[in-house]
Design brief:
By secondary structure, this protein is mostly helical. It is 72% helix and 0% strand.
Length: 429
């Protein structure tokens, strides 16, 4: 029978292992002139090559998004008109208000960097949609030359392949370029969901604006109910198949596992094909596919989210407990860090005792503690990337500096060497 950990109270500066002598945390806390000045999750590396590579990546991304943004703005307003485009924009935003909060809720324990989340959204909204519009038109023209119905073949044969490949390409870019921020299935679902919701947002604007031009307000409202209220998770669920596949190999980045994301892409294309085929069939056929496929798929999607979050929480508990046994965290802090509810209570407590500065320190303490557990997870899985060892050491010091802004310092922690794994001693009840 395990011992129940007390809820975090913020004023508890006790709980380090017995026999550890009192004193300040080991090592120098980070400061503006210290070795971890400007720390954002890993030690500074200001080598010219790294700085140049980062500048090139930012420059390419900004240029790509700017060009595709101008292209899409011109295309949407030309095809639907300004009034219809604005109406489509307003109504399509409803789906954002449904899906994005769900993705952020899933990502509570180990929040992804805002810059990568924005990259994912903009890739889906601009790059994927621009590419899809061009390639879909080419595909429809090709099948029209074969004297096949271009509308049906375009929606059923071309669009699922083109759109899912372009969306999944954005997730793959994150997986390869921001590899240290892609740490499992939950991350894959969140990044894939953000790419897909960006794509669906622009697609909804185009379709809703076109429905208003052709059928007026009734057409706009009808399509709004179908796309934004009945099926807002359609695109995210399709692309999430690829995100889940990448998450499964996040710690096995070898060519021998390339078949896993390939299967994820095939699953995304097949589900998209099935959805489009049902949408072009009769109303009875669409309802049948919706009830027998879409609803069970959504239930399965939720179950995958629940299981993945439990695994993530178990990982955090295991590694933060190991740090706690070495004096870096109190038992109350470990209990707080693995519970979203206790995290909220801790932030509220910090705001009450120290104002906004203490609340910000508490939030940073929580986020960096999660990053610390992830770094330890990589080390214990044998990840040879040296950044994880450096990141662990940096984070061990930054969490101490964050804590000093809202709670008394802990007793002197023990060193926690890379590769060390400590199992808790059994409790005597």
């Amino acid at each position: 029978m395990s011992q129940q950990l007390p809820p975090y109270r913020g004023d508890q500066g006790v709980g380090a292992p017995a026999g550890v002598r009192p004193g300040p945390p080991t090592g120098r806390p980070p400061g503006p002139h210290g070795p971890y000045a400007g720390f954002q999750g890993e030690p500074l590396n200001v080598t010219p090559r790294r700085a140049l590579r980062r500048s090139v990546l930012w420059g390419v991304s900004i240029t790509l998004f700017a060009l595709t943004g101008l292209f899409m703005s011109f295309l949407v307003t030309e095809s639907t008109g300004v009034t219809a485009a604005l109406l489509g924009l307003l109504t399509a935003s409803t789906a954002l208000g449904i899906v994005v909060p769900v993705l952020l809720w899933v990502d509570r324990l180990e929040a992804e960097p805002a810059r990568i989340m924005w990259f994912a959204f903009l890739w889906g909204a601009l790059v994927s949609t621009a590419g899809a519009l061009i390639l879909n038109e080419l595909g429809m023209a090709f099948f029209a030359g074969l004297e096949l119905d271009p509308v049906f073949t375009g929606a059923v044969l071309v669009a699922p392949v083109v759109e899912e490949v372009l969306k999944c390409l954005g997730v793959l870019v994150i997986f390869l370029v921001a590899r240290r921020e892609f740490n499992g299935v939950v991350d894959g679902i969140v990044y894939a969901g953000m790419v897909a919701v960006g794509f669906a947002f622009i697609e909804n604007i185009i379709y809703l604006g076109g429905a208003f031009n052709e059928l007026g307000t009734p057409g706009l409202v009808g399509l709004f109910v179908l796309r934004c209220l009945v099926s807002p998770f359609a695109h995210p669920m399709f692309t999430a198949c690829f995100g889940i596949a990448l998450g499964l190999i996040a710690y096995r980045r070898r060519w021998s596992y390339a078949f896993v994301p390939a299967l994820g892409l095939l699953a995304a294309v097949f589900l998209h094909f099935l959805w489009n085929f049902a949408a072009l069939s009769s109303l009875d056929g669409f309802l049948l596919v919706y009830v027998l496929v879409q609803v069970p798929l959504f239930v399965g999607f939720v179950l995958v989210l629940v299981v993945s979050r439990r695994q993530e929480r178990r990982m955090l508990r295991e590694h933060l407990t190991g740090y706690g046994l070495n004096g870096w965290f109190t038992p109350a802090e470990v209990a707080m860090l693995i519970s979203p509810r206790e995290r909220r209570r801790a932030r509220a407590w910090a705001r009450g005792v120290g104002g906004s500065r203490a609340e910000q320190a508490m939030e940073a303490f929580q986020d960096e503690s999660s990053e610390l557990a992830i770094a330890r997870h990589h080390l214990e899985r044998g990840d040879e990337d040296p950044v994880w060892r450096h990141r662990e050491q940096a984070l061990l010091h930054t969490v101490q500096a964050r804590r000093a802004l809202f709670a008394p310092p802990l007793r002197t922690p023990l060193p926690y060497a890379a590769g060390q794994h400590i199992h808790p001693a059994p409790h005597k009840l």
